[in-house]
Amino acid sequence: MTSAPHFALDRQEETVTSLPSPYLLFLGDTTEPGYAKTAFGLRDWAPDRCAGEYVMPGGSVSTGLPQLDFAQAVDAGARGLVIGVANAGGVIPDEWVNALVKALEAGLDIIAGMHMKLNADPRLAEAARRSGRKLIDVRTPPPAIPVASGRRRSGRRLLTVGTDCALGKKYTALAIARGLQSRGVDAQFRATGQTGIMIAGTGIPLDAVVADFIAGAAELLSPDAHPDHVDVIEGQGSLFHPAYAGVTLGLLHGSQPDMFIVCDAPHRATILGSPGFRLPTIEAVIEQTISLGRTTNPDIRCVGVSLNTFGMPEDEADALCVALERRVALPVADPMRANPRFDRLLDACQ
After folding, report:
1. Cβ neighbours for 59, distance < 8 A, ≥ 6 positions apart
2. Is 150 helix (H, G, I), strand (E, B) or coil?
3. Quick check: helix, strand or coil at residue 157?
4. Which 8-state DSSP code applies to residue 221?
5. What is the pLDDT of residue 3?
6. How far is the first Cα of the chain from the last one, in angstroms, to the nearest whole number?
7. Which string of b and e fits 217-237 if b means at least 16 CB within 10 Å?
8. Which of 86, 93, 89, 130 is nearest to 111 (CA)?
9. 8-11 long-range Cβ contacts below 8 angstroms, 24+ apart
10. Phi-psi region of 329 (alpha: psi -120 to 50; beta: other; left: phi over 0)
């Protein structure tokens, strides 16, 4: 995997600066890979800033990076421990706290993008004070976000939307932005979640914004631009998710996408964390996104589908893309597989 592209930072976003790296990626006792998207995202898009990983007893998820204890990580040059998993509700379980305290005592700052703020736990706050280390919360929106105006803006916008959460919207947006840039297109990745912000160094964590201001935050992320500029906006959640659809809708209205790409994990049958809810069809997502997106952009259109075919043999992944392409009459590709299918998806984004 190559290093992540550099995305220029030139407009009105909240910037994350001077995060202490290299990172030790903390995976806790996680057993569900879908909850470790921060760790995997940093491994794949910022590998030069990752020294290794730390897995607690009972944990079964691994990024494949060297497993280090806290002393070994410091000896290897690590400066910050990134909490690389996000459980339901974004809280820090009690069983993690002792390990995090030991990380502070070993000389590591702690970086998190969870809903629960690190300083909210008095044990972590005291350990940080005692050791002289920092507790850094990335999931903090900028102040004074305005209510959305709904005004049409210049420039072009592409949004990744999904059948579910944690299935490839961020990876698709990063790959599309990089692909367009390689073609000489003035394109920029716009991060809306904690992992994307850690990768790009800038963005607004949409799910930490008060509901009335989510669309306004999305407007801030993608203001007026040159007519040829393309903002590639990281999607959040799913319009069909029983818990997170509100954030998805606010992002859709505020980003006013001219184009969107539907992201899907074909091996997944039910909503992650909500087994009573089956994943919607690609066609249902397209129809719903266009219907709701027309509120702020009457010209919204779907330009393709991104499939997460991780772990599949090449021929099986290609057969899935071929079958779906015939079904929906749109380009279908896995952006993490370099092949002509991805080139055709990029063609549709220009």
Report:
1. 27, 28, 29, 30, 31
2. coil
3. strand
4. H
5. 35
6. 25
7. bbbbbbeebeeebbbbbbbbb
8. 86
9. 8/188, 9/200, 9/201, 9/202, 11/223
10. left
Say how far apart CA 133 and CA 118 lie, in whole Å.
12
Distance of CA 299 to the CA centre of its chain: 26
If you search the block for the tokens 């220029």, which residue do you land on? 8
β-pairing, 109-112 vs 80-83, is: parallel
The DSSP letter of residue 146 is P
Q: Is the peptide bond before 66 cis (omega within 30 degrees of 0)?
A: no
Instruction: Give yes or no for a contact between 255 and 279, defined as CB atoms under 8 angstroms apart.
Output: no
Amino acid found at 227: P
Q: Residue 142 to residues 113, 204, 209: CA-CA distances in angstroms?
A: 14, 7, 9
The pLDDT value given to residue 114 = 87
Q: Which residues of 105-142 are buried (b: 16+ CB within 10 A; e: fewer)?
A: ebbbbbbbbbbbebeebeebeebbeebebbbbbbbbbe
**Whose CA is closest to 103, among 165, 175, 23, 215?**
23
State the pTM of this model.
0.84
Enumerate long-range contacts of 269-278, CB under 8 Å, 24 or more apart: 271/164, 271/165, 271/238, 271/240, 271/241, 271/242, 272/34, 272/164, 272/165, 272/166, 272/167, 273/88, 273/243, 274/241, 274/242, 274/243, 277/240, 277/241, 277/242
Tell me the one-letter amino acid at 73.
A
Q: What is the mean pLDDT of residues 211-224?
A: 96
Q: For residue range 295-328, list pLDDT tens digits in order.
A: 999 999 999 999 999 999 999 999 999 999 999 9
Query: pLDDT value at position 1?
Result: 32
**Do you know the residue count of the chain?**
350
Token readout for 70 is 């806290």
